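Dear colleagues,

As part of the handover before I leave the project, I'm documenting each prediction I ran so the next person doesn't have to rerun anything. This entry is a single chain, and its sequence is reproduced below.
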Amino acid sequence: MTQREPLLLSGIQHFAYCRRQWALIHIEGQWAENLRTVGGQLLHRRAHDEKEVELRGDILTVRGLRIASARLNITGVCDVVEFHRCKDGISLAGWDGGWMPYPVEYKRGAPKEHNADRLQLCAQAMCLEEMLMCGICEGSLFYGETRRRERVELTHELRSEVEAMTEEMTALMQRGHTPSVRPTKGCNACSLKEVCLPALKRAPSVEAYIRSHLEDNL
């Protein structure tokens, strides 16, 4: 990977959830499906099935918008970006007035305690800010299980974490390095469990196995 070859924005969520999972997918090209991954793909497909651009009242909805950030060195596609009519908003070619962008990311399942989804949404907003030269203070996560949106404030803390993660992702990609496994309770839900083999991390090393048997025989 060259320094300017961009990372995939979708990898932000993978990296925040598990650095090894991200490396298996984005460095080694490993992939496996389960019910969760298939469900997520269907939800995203439905989000992109409708018209790419739709105006309803004061909200202009754009689906499947391609975005990028040279500063963060990432590129990707937004599920939905709503442009809310706003007097102090940005100008959009072909549309009168001002508009304020509002990213909406679709996720299967329900809201989560960890920040992986919020970090991916924040990264999308940071790309939009760089492309459109504006500020975005909020976005939403739409969850398929609850059929509701979760509003996300795009804080300084989230932005700083996105910046640190993209730097770490770039360094790992340049080295071609896959981090070692750190088993968690989330491993059982991972589609790459049979590729990653987290259970091997819990197994004793050969040295520890031999030492324990020698001690038993003393």
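The two ends are 54 Å apart (CA to CA). The beta strands are 7-8, 53-56, 59-69, 74-92, 95-107, 138-143, 148-153.

All the best with the project,
I.
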